[in-house]
Amino acid sequence: MFKKDAVKHVFQISYDTEETEGHTIDAEKLGDAIVSMSKALKNANKVINGEGADLGLDVKAHSEGSFVVEFVTYLNNAGINPLSILGFMGVTGTAVTVLGALKELKSRKITLIQPTTKGMSTVKLSDDSEMNIPSEIAELIASKSFRDNIDTIIKAPLEGTTNAKFIVKDDEGTETFEITEEDAESFTTISQNVVEEIKEDTERKEVYFTKVNFEGTSGWQIKLPDDSLVAVTMKDEAFIERVNKNNQEFSKTALFSVKLKTITKHRHGTSPTYKRELLEVIRKRAE
After folding, report:
1. What per-residue string of b and e applies to 68-100 under the rule 16 or more CB within 10 Å gives b?
2. Residue 91 contacts by C-beta under 8 Å, 6 or more apart in sequence?
3. Which of 31, 194, 204, 207 is 20 to 30 A away from residue 249, measured at CA?
């Protein structure tokens, strides 16, 4: 339940196409869009204001226009209004919004998101260009579930229509944002969550070999100082050659000092993944 003093905000979306001139629209597409709008707003509110933040959403009967849906939101939390971050209410100046960032993407794909200064992130794109935007906006445009919702709200209702526009309006019906059918492709969903960070660390460690393969670089496994067993790619070809020449036998109790490279890849909404490369076997320690 929302408090009586919950902050109320109203905005409208309009589907303006030749097919909606009679104030009708495909019922299934509209129903999906409304459900997705609710999910998108609530998800964004938690990203921006924390998991405890709550948001209510009502839908009012459409007013005059091509096909207008009016939404009424209720915010209990005193944090940032997610509607201003998303672009569903007017903002002043050149403030970046989620809708604005997606429109700027055009056909380019996001390849990597890297946090930079406090509250900002660099979004790297498939054409080697970059966007520097607030981190909460970067997180949302990198999220597949959020992009699924935006696709359903914006792109899907415009598909197969003629002279199409998606228009955002304020509570007085003043247009604040417009998406044409040419822009709609920028609001399509993504195939998977975007990689947020790739980090490489090279350290010297003392390890035990638990699996070996002198025929190639794969199939190796080591035990780390914390007793965890991890697969590694053997990059020290000279070591393999020395061992093969000497016909050395390996014992799981033999301790080796090695140079180990760990590549950490963190994809949005998932746990990090690790790839390890054993760059050099420095020496064998006494058993």
Report:
1. bbbbebebbbeeebbbbbbbbbbbeeeebbbbb
2. 84, 97
3. 204
CA gap 102, 33 in Å, rounded: 18
Half-sphere exposure of 29 (CA within 13 A, CB side): 16
Residue 3: enclosing H or E segment and its boundaries?
none
Q: Sheet with 55-60: list strands edge to edge.
A: 55-60, 68-75, 7-16, 165-170, 175-180
Count of other CB atoms within 10 angstroms of residue 9? 18
**What is the CB neighbour count within 10 angstroms for residue 29?**
17
Closest CA to 156 of 42, 40, 15: 15
Question: Pick from 161, 214, 212, 187: which is nearest to 26 by CA?
Answer: 161
* DSSP-based three-state secondary structure for 46: helix
Range with the lowest mean pLDDT among 39-48, 170-179, 239-248?
239-248
Q: State which H helix or E strand residue 79 sits in.
A: none
208: Cβ contacts below 8 Å, ≥ 6 apart = 222, 223, 252, 253, 254, 255, 256
Residues 6+ apart with CB under 8 A from 193: 142, 143, 144, 267, 268, 269, 270
Q: What is the pLDDT of residues 72-113, one digit of tens each?
A: 888 876 678 888 889 888 654 446 899 999 999 887 888 888
Please count the CA atoms within 13 angstroms of the CA of 19 that sit on its side-chain side.
Answer: 12
Query: How many angstroms separate the first and last alpha carbons of the chain?
Result: 67
- Give the pTM: 0.65
- Contact by Cβ (8 Å): 252, 208: yes
